Amino acid sequence: MSTKRISKEFAEVSQSPPEGFTITLPPSATLHTWHIVLTPPPSTPFHPGHFGIVLTLPTDYPFKPPVVKFITRLYHPNVTNDSLGNVCLGILKPENWKPSTKIAAVLEALMNLMIEPQPDDPLEERIADEYRNDRAAWEAKAREFVNRYALEEPVFPAS
Amino acid sequence: MEDQDSGLHDMAAQQAAAERFQPGLEGPFVGEKIPSDAITQEYAKADPIYVEKTIALPQTYSHYRQIKGDGNCGWRAIAFAYFEKLIDLGDQAQIEGEVARLMSLGHMISNIGGYEYHEDFAEEAHNLLREIALNVANPGLARVILLQRFNDSGIEANIIYYFRILAATYLKANAAIYDDFAADFGGIATYCSQAIDIVNREIEHLGIVGLANLLLKPIDFVLEIAYLDRSPGSQVNRYRFPEEANQQDPAALGPTLYLLYRPDHYDILYRTPPVQAPASSVVPVSVAAPSGPVDLQVNRVNFTNNIAIHSNPPSFGGGGMDVLSMLPGFGMNALGAMGDLGPLTSPPAAASPVGDPFVSSQQSGAWMPQYPETLPSQVPPQQQQQQQQSPPASLPPPPVVSASPINSSTPMTPSPTMPTVTRSSSSSGHLPPLAPVPQPSSPGYRIRFSPVQLDYEESKRINTREPPYQTTTSTTFKNSVWNRAHYGNPDFHPEEYVPDEEQDVRGGRPKNKRSNS
Question: What EC numbers are recorded for this enzyme (chain B) (predicted)?
Fold first, then answer.
């Protein structure tokens, strides 16, 4: 059932992808795992990085929210600073999730998070404090992370 | 995730577990239709308001259907009841009309409701309607299909979400009316987005209003909700949607869906069918029945007056049941009819009428253990103890004992007993003359329920203390209700550690106890 909805959404998103995103299905396509590359705009310290994101759709999607993880490390208050790359995105929280939300809207929210971090709802307290109190230091570290991790095309894990 | 969890403090881990905990997730999404007595039993030990309301409930609503309490129960209950009512009505054209009508709402759902991909949710609901329409000639099959679809998580999730967006769409379309009701949320649109669009978020009044108006009202369906709560009253409070249905004559209302609301939960109720109304008015017999035992005693007194029953006291001590077996005074009624045949032929005839009550006394024997103290209250205390020690065992003898006085009495006083019979039958309602033999006993035991409980409360207070509580907690009677540590004991008190016992302050008993255990 949900595959119909998912293929519909994938068709829409791959025909006219939101700006800054490229979306592909992994080779052994199950439709439930999407490989996404996010390219933040120049206004952000994350430019010119390319950030790999794995979007997983649960079997009971759309009644459970998609799961989004960064596979490229970045220095961001709302993304865990580790290899897991968990993201804190309001609309994906179970208590907020609406089955009528499009994946395109999720991607849009991700882009907004890159442009404007949400230090009040952080996953990394320390980075959030730094973002609030010493923006220059935060930006410097964010750029450093981009240089270290995000300049090359992301390599998605074979799942 | 794992890494994080292991890093958490114990308390945090527990809190996380508590947040993940979801109550009431056992069982199917929609259960089978079962007699609503189950609700009465469920609340038998609750506070008096619940007890009273749930005892009255099955008289109005004979059956109910349990709905899984996962936060969707109100939506699920309305949706299921809607489909089921369409099956009940059995009108294929109407069901197909519903498919067309709901499909025509599609534009409204996307333009006014603003919902993406609503077709996917809608499709499951429409498919189910079509499937039901195809099978409506075979309602049994249609119901099986319905129950099966609602217990298929992939299908029911779509149907429920479809009902959510239907309700929200109606509310948004009538924002001018409903904005004020959602002032806390800053308008109906925000309300819908925060309270209706979210999965597993329970239905609230506005959601019900939306569904009632968009889904039910156009086909003249009415939704009646019975509120079972602690509010004063002897019956559940009822409220109907749409609102104007509350003022109308219930008989003039369209097909009605019934829900039972208990704080935070909805189940489906089924009204006692009107066809059975006479049958259910027999239930009042059980209400009138309290007078039953009273009548019985009157009969007994008559007996002692008319017949010198010296054997009466023993038969009494034999277990109060022979009050019922005396009841067969009705048996004399039958005898009276046959009585003309002559005293000598009557004994065999007498055996059967007396035998019948005996059967009934066995039936009541089944409930004896449950309310053993009811009888004592009618009986002198000393005999009471005897009874309590051996209630069931003493059942068989009394009828035999009482059989002889009845037999002997038959030739003597057939006529005086007749009036008492008619009196009791008139007081207990519409019992036909011949019916009394089985009737008074079986309703009698239903009847006994409440008044007996009163007696039972009283006797408990006054004089039955000792025998039951001598055995506080002995291993031998561990499973007996007479054991105070048994949950069925009216003075239930769990076993607890008593330091004195260890020190043998109370003499031999603690020792015994220890040797027992």
Answer: 3.4.19.12
* Inter-chain CB proximity B198 and A100 less than 8 Å: no
Q: Which segments within B281-393 are labelled E, that is strand? A: none
> Tell me, which fold does domain B22-272 have in CATH?
3 helical TM bundles of succinate and fumarate reductases (1.20.1300)
CATH topology of domain A2-150: Ubiquitin Conjugating Enzyme (3.10.110)
Distance, in Å, from the CA atom of B263 to the CA atom of A16, rounded to the nearest integer, reads 48
What is the domain partition of chain B in residue ranges? 22-272, 282-464, 469-517
Q: Going edge to edge, which strands form the sheet with B237-241?
A: B30-35, B61-67, B265-271, B256-262, B222-227, B237-241
Nearest CB among B116, B120, B155 relative to A4 is that of B120
Phi-psi region of B76 (alpha: psi -120 to 50; beta: other; left: phi over 0): alpha
Band (pLDDT 50/70/90 cuts) for residue B477 is: low
Residue B101 has pLDDT above 60, yes or no: yes
Give A-chain residues touching B153 at CB under 8 angstroms.
Answer: 60
Top-confidence residue, B365 or A42: A42
Pinpoint the alpha helices (H) of B63-152. Answer: 73-89, 92-104, 106-108, 118-134, 139-150
Domain boundaries, chain A: 2-150
Q: Lowest-pLDDT range, B201-210, B214-223, B482-491?
A: B482-491
Residues 6+ apart with CB under 8 A from B435: none
Q: Do B198 and A97 touch (CB under 8 A)?
A: yes
C-alpha dihedral, B88 to B94 to B96 to B100, nearest 10°? -130
Cα separation, A61 vs A10, in Å, equals 13
What single-letter amino acid sits at B409? S
CB contact under 8 A, A1 and B115: no
B33-42, B104-113, B429-438, B480-489: range with highest mean pLDDT: B104-113
> A75 with A141: CB under 8 angstroms?
yes
> pLDDT tens digits for A78-125?
999 888 899 989 899 988 999 999 999 999 999 999 999 999 988 999
* The predicted structure's pLDDT at residue B502: 54
Residues in B touching A96 (Cβ below 8 Å): 198
CB burial string B220-241: b at 16+ within 10 A, e below? ebbbbbbbbeeeeeeebeeebb
**Angle separating helix axes B139-150 and B118-134, nearest 10 degrees:** 160
Written as six digits, the tokens of B334 are 């039958």
Write the secondary structure of B422-467 as one string of H (helix), E (strand) and C (coil): HHHHHHCCCCCCCCCCCCCHHHHHHHHHHHHHHHHHHHHHHCCCHH
Q: Which residues of chain A lie closer than 8 angstroms to B193, CB-CB?
A: 98
- C-alpha span between B29 and A156 (Å, rounded): 39
Predicted confidence at residue B483, as pLDDT, reads: 76
> B137 pLDDT band (50/70/90 cuts)?
very high
Nearest Cα to B403, choosing from B486, B456, B346, B455? B346
pLDDT one-digit tens code per residue, B243-272: 888 888 888 888 999 999 988 899 999 988
Judge whether residue B117 has pLDDT over 60: yes
Percent of chain B with pLDDT over 70: 51
d(CA A66, CA A60): 10
Mean pLDDT, rounded, of chain B = 68
